[in-house]
Amino acid sequence: MFHFTFLQAAVTGLVQGITELFPVSSLGHSVLVPAWLGGSWRAFSDTPQYLLVAVALHLASAIALFIVFAPRWIAILKSLFTWKKGSSAFRLFWLLVLGTIPVALVGFAFNNFFQRNFQKPLSSAIFLTVNGLVLFGAERLTSRRHAHSVPADQNLAIVERVSAGQAVVIGVGQSAALFAGISRFGVTISFGMLRGLSRSVAADFAFLLSFPVILGASMVKLPKLGHGALAGSYGALTFAAGVAFVATIFSVKVLTRWFKNNSLRPFAAYCLVVGVISIVRFGFFN
After folding, report:
1. What is this structure's pTM?
2. Could you tell me if residue 62 is inside a domain?
């Protein structure tokens, strides 16, 4: 019988909440952390129920994201209901839709494939390394550009720099985050920077785009939580979700300040170091 302890709940919730928005891949860490700890932690992560736990914690992160950005989402939805086609909020809504559709289609079409590859530490280590290279590449290619001025209306900054076609492209790029080890947030912010957005505005776009993707993925799997697969562990699961919720809010607060004056390089270096060490560990000594 599946047993989810409160210690596992605390660690798993904390890892999810911190790594979901830090550009280091929450899925990659949800695979690598138990693999490194080994023993009962590795056995716990190898169960089919572990994916359901990850889904529940992603939902907690989605709720936290909505609360933090509630004023922005209310403005966006209001512009839609009042059909203010000329407003930046209205135009941003459709960019978010276009950026979400590709990853939803890819996730639906290849759901079984991604589930089969979810719990492989070596695969996660390789993709985490690739993620580090993507972040370094974005910084390298934009290092000589002048900082893009940030207007009072950040929605306007996004819609002026990201076209409908480019929103679709970034949605396709986000699909890579279905591989554990690739960061959805990292892909989005890197693309935004390449389009001339400042890190701060690119991160803002990434935060907004994360919410519908995380929420949608969680809602698809959520019904399975009520089928008894986690019977006896709902208390620990609720605790884990609470930890993930608080940690996600903390992550947003830290990152919004970080990207005002700092780069992606520390995250890129972290991904490369952890990724390469994990490749050695699980590729040669597993």
Report:
1. 0.88
2. yes
